[in-house]
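Appendix B. One record, verbatim.
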Amino acid sequence: MIGIGMILREAAGWLLLLIGLYTFRLCLSYLNDRKIVEGFIVAMMGFFIFRGGLYLLRVAIAARALIADRRAEARRDATKI
């Protein structure tokens, strides 16, 4: 059974990933306008937001794999009896 926490964690990961990509786009806009300092600051923010999203996705996928492994192990144990 997939819990609501895992679904929310994965949705938050995708949302942070998209916000991070948008932040990188904003960074490019600043750099095209020759605003180097602002572009650098926005790029650093985007980097950390993007990384946070990747981390949440990685944790959600690991939890999903763990649940699938436990189900497969339970099926194996049920067939042994």
